Structure formats: structure tokens, C-alpha cells
Amino acid sequence: MEPVPLIARIRDSVAGSARAKDLEALHELVRKGEVRDATFTPELYEAFFGLLSAAFTWRAKDVQADVVHAELAFLGATKVPEFEPSACERLVEDHLLRALYGRCDGSATQEEWPCIRDLF
User: Fold this and answer.
1) Which of 23, 54, 100, 104 is the most exposed place for a label (fewest CB within 10 A)?
2) What integer pLDDT is reported at residue 112 of this predicted model?
3) Residue 3 pLDDT
4) Distance CA 65, CA 30 (A)
């Protein structure tokens, strides 16, 4: 599946098994390197950054695994050779940084700490 529509579906969905499965599928797409088959367009960068911003707002205890999957998918995508940091500088906005700092308020699970460290 193409990552942009998958990410859009994740962002538009509510917590539950469907979103969790889509996040796992996205994480696997990235983990297996299949995301490299996609063209890294502005839409793809926006989708990944939008997913990260959305995941930072998921505070319920029962969806913290979803947050970790979203963060790992994002971090994995940033590590592929096709990812061009200069192409997404404009997407690192104040609201994203505030949301990242917000995850440091004690609400993040211990499993999320390495992701937060890597995002900083």
C-alpha cells in the first residue's frame, strides 16, 4: 500500500483495532524498507510529520502502543537514503516542537523514551 493514503487513514481514524493495525502496517512498510519504493514528495513528508503531530496528542493509556508505532515509523522513514532533511525543514514548526516537549511531561511510557530521545 502507498504510505500517503495509509497515513491519512490513520490520522482520520479513532483509536481502536483498525488504527492499530494500520499503524503496524505502516511500521512494517518502513521497517522492511518498502517505504523506499515511494517517491519522497512534499505530500509524503507532510503525511509523516502530520502523523507525528497527531500521535503526540494521543494521551489515553490504552493507545500508547499506537504512539510508539507512529514514532518508530517516522524515525525509520528519516533513516532511509531517500529522505532529504532539507526538503522538510519547513515542517518542523513550533506546534510540532511544543507537542514533542509535551510528551516529556511524564505521560509518555517508558517504551516511548528512546523515541523521544531520538526525535530530539
Assistant:
1) 104
2) 81
3) 95
4) 17
pLDDT on residue 76? 94
Q: How far apart are CA 87 and CA 21, in angstroms?
A: 29
Q: What is the 3-state secondary structure (H, E, C) of the chain?
A: CCHHHHHHHHHHCCCCHHHHHHHHHHHHHHHCCHHHHCCCCHHHHHHHHHHHHHHHCCCCHHHHHHHHHHHHHHHHHHCCCCCCHHHHHHHCCHHHHHHHHHCCCCCCCHHHHHHHHHHC
Q: Which residues in the chain come in under a pLDDT of 50?
A: none
Query: Long-range pairs for 51-55 at CB < 8 Å and ≥24 separation?
Result: 51/7, 51/10, 51/11, 52/96, 52/119, 53/95, 53/96, 53/99, 54/10, 54/11
Amino acid letter, residue 63:
V
Residue 78, pLDDT score: 92
Look at the alpha carbons of 45, 3, 69, 33 in this order and tell me if their dihedral is positive or negative.
Answer: negative
- Write down the pTM of the prediction: 0.86
